[in-house]
Amino acid sequence: MSAGAMVAALWRYVRPYRGVLWGAGVALVFTAGVTLAIGQGVRLLVDHGLTGDSSQALSHAVLVIMVLAVLMAVGTYARHYLVSWLGERVVADLRKAVFDHIVTLHPSYFETNRSGEIMSRLTTDTSLLQHIIGTSFSMALRSALMFVGALILLLFTNLKLSLMVLVGVPLVLLPIVFYGRRVRKLSKASQDSIADVGSYAGEIIQHIKTVQSYTREQHEQQAFAAEVETAFSVARRRIRQRSLLVAVVILLMFGAVSGLLWVGGNDMIAGRMSSGDLAAFVFYAIMMGSAVATISEVYGELQRATGATERLMDLLNVKADIPRGNGGVEPESIAGEAGARIAFAAVEFRYPSRPEQAAIRDLQLDVPAGKSLALVGPSGAGKSTLLELLQRFYDPQHGRITLNGTDIRDLDTATLRRQMAVVPQQPALFTADVWYNLRYGKPDASDEEVIAAARAAHAHDFILQLPDGYNSHLGEQGTRLSGGQKQRLAIARAILKDPKILLLDEATSALDAESEYHVQQALQTLMQNRTTIVIAHRLATILHADNIAVMDQGQIIAQGTHGELIKISPLYKRLAELQFQDFAIKKPVDES
């Protein structure tokens, strides 16, 4: 991405604040003009103040310089405030735009992109852009104006010396262009390496208990040190190029100024120019040199900004595989009072990250409205995949999934998912209090409704035992709770949402026997007049399901009640034998 492309990409975020931009531009031009006018004050000071005989002329020259200094200070304040405000505002909008886009992306994107790298783009890259927009870009524009203005005033001051400057300028600009390309490549590599460091650290912190339980602290310290050294190595190469660029430009510029001083000094001695003109010329020449040196230094920062902008724009340009608003079917037409009929018709699905392996193969399944279906089978059979397809986290490559006859691809995804509540095997809890976590599916629920849902899930008692009750913060991912407590909160959240379709993925796997009994009673109440799909490895929890489907290798190989499946499904019979002793005696066969 070139600097022009970077500006074009960022312009849509700057455009709403054109008024502030114009104000900053006016302040920028004003301060540049005042700074350049100081050169004329220097000329007056030398010709009429220092070398003249009049004390009044000296006072006048000093007063002019003081007035210009005050004006420059006022203009600099306005420029710095407006440009810094603009940088903060644009980056805040950009962060919101990136996050708003991230939360709509398809889950497959996060299978192939690490969360740490995405967070680096959202934080590190945007912070870099804030510095560039709020500081470096302003400095670059100011220096460019100073350069052009000083060059014009040089032409008016002494034409011969100005022509010498014009010949030398291209020699100074060549290193900026040459080294700038190297800096841009190294800047993007540096940002990528920093993202790798953050991603690695985030993963280790997230799994710190596993790291410590396997006593891998020293290994992880060494591995992280290697990541840090890699990032430092890339940064060192970038810094070397930038430093060399600045050094070469400064050497060339001040070498040229020295040459101009020698030529101008000889002209002054010969009487071809006044000492004031020479002082003004030197002032403008130094101003040009400083401007070019500043531009060369800021140019490296702009190259880093180009790399950061490119990474952010790549993220913003990722297209969601499943659009959110692609249907106009009203919710009432897909779920009645008794839930919704769910049907899978000839469904075949392969995960984008594993296209060679079919997770679901030619699957036919029908769940009547208000009935419950249990899915059983070995790990990897495709049970959880069915729930993900039903929530439309993925679309099948072949076949269709319908709710009351309506293809879910014709529904708005938000409309679809509002009809469902999910209790996963590993509940997701947020770093907030209990109120927030329980209300996540129904933000407008009253305190009484929340407490009633917690009681129904047998979570109320342990919540009251927390340090601040329902106001207790749960820590990152609910680290302050046991596995069973997390699951009961997830069940309470589902109860509170009061969905038409209930999806339970090993919802009681982390509960002790007594808690499981009580929660099963709560779930039986919750499942009434709702279409329910239950995934369970413990067959005792699904004996009362209206229908049980046995899955293996992405297919339904048998359906029926517990008693029927004992007779017709060798796989189900083997699973039952592993879990029940004398099941034929203790669990009478269902002859119905």
Largest sheet: 6 strands, mixed
Order of helices and strands: HHHHHHHHHEEEHEEHEHHHHEHEEEHHH
What portion of residues is helical?
Answer: 55-70%
In the CATH hierarchy, what is the class of the largest domain?
Mainly Alpha
- The CATH superfamily of the largest domain bears the name ABC transporter type 1, transmembrane domain
CATH third-tier fold name of the largest domain = ABC transporter transmembrane region fold
| Overall strand count | 10
Any low-confidence stretches, pLDDT <50, length ≥5? 582-592
Number of helices: 19
The share of residues in extended strands comes to 5-15%
Number of domains: 3
Radius of gyration: 36 Å
The SS-based structural class is: alpha/beta
Can you tell me the overall shape?
A: elongated
Largest beta sheet: what is the strand line-up? 6-7-8-3-9-10
- CATH level-two architecture of the largest domain: Up-down Bundle
Distance between the termini: 70 Å
